[in-house]
Amino acid sequence: MKVTKEKEEQEELIQTESNNYEIDNKTKPPFLAAKYELRRKLYKAFCKDPDLPSDMRDKHRYKLSKLPRNSSFARVRN
């Protein structure tokens, strides 16, 4: 009797944890990639521009490296 009650409590706990996980997945924040898309494209364009001085290109390359890694669309998964 006592064993079944403990099992029921464990099953309820697992059930509520899985429900919380489903709720958290539904309220995920939007992709960081969308938020940083313009900034990332600008920094990349500045890095590739041969007309700019090298120190300015290095500065923009540094700023690009400081963006969150998840802000790249190549790193976004389904």
Automatic annotation (TrEMBL):
A GO MF term: structural constituent of ribosome
Keyword presence, Glycosyltransferase: no
Domain of life: Eukaryota
Location of this chain's protein in the cell: Mitochondrion
InterPro entries: Ribosomal_uS14
GO biological process: translation
SUPFAM superfamilies: Glucocorticoid receptor-like (DNA-binding domain)
Biased composition (Polar residues): 68-78
Segments of this protein annotated with the region Disordered: 1-26, 50-78
Organism: Gossypium barbadense (Sea Island cotton)
GO CC terms, sorted: mitochondrion; small ribosomal subunit
Family: Belongs to the universal ribosomal protein uS14 family.
PANTHER family on file: 30S RIBOSOMAL PROTEIN S14 (PTHR19836), RIBOSOMAL PROTEIN S14 (PTHR19836:SF30)
The entry's keywords: Mitochondrion, Ribonucleoprotein, Ribosomal protein
The keyword Coiled coil is assigned to this record: no
Protein name (record): Small ribosomal subunit protein uS14m
